[in-house]
Amino acid sequence: MIESSSLDTTRAAYDAVATLYAEMFRDSVEGHPLDSALVAAFAEFVRAAGGGPVADLGCGPGGVTARLASLGVTAFGVDASSAMIELARQEYPDLRFDEGSMLALDIADGALGGVLAWYSIIHTSPEDLPVIFAEFARVLAPGGHLLVGVFATDADSPHLAEPFDHKVSLAYRLSIDHVADLASKAGLTEVGRLRRAPGENERFQHGRLLARKPTEP
Asked: What domain of life (predicted)?
């Protein structure tokens, strides 16, 4: 497994707050209608393309993984935090949860119908993002879909990534154009994108990108 100093730091930080985090954000889509609709659309795309398994990468305590399963796809979770994985297994014993790194996924080439990366790349050093998107593309089957959720930079920001003081570990707001460019350079085709304004008690805009792996090279 490829490691990085930022991954080590993030893993340790989430291990330390896993129980509290799970109490506060068991399902981070809950209460956000646009987000829940987009996750449901993602699941529908996966089903329409053949219904291959979906990996919820950076699954945390597993709530969104369970949401995916309830939407009719075969979903499993992967997270770098062993404490998060343990909580997820306890809460959702019928689902699969594995400890792992997005920098080097223990998943076969072309094995997945879908990849969900819901706020799981926000702690990644910007220089490591191309590696992670290459991994997303590698594990997707032709016709498979990727859905990414991030904190977004402001529309007029000249920066591709802007660090901010996340409560758990250093994180980055990302340009939606940059996320789309990373997906494109990894060989994925954009299906759509969404920018959501901050909700109550939220500081930043949110960005979502839906992309697809072409069926032909």
From this structure: Bacteria
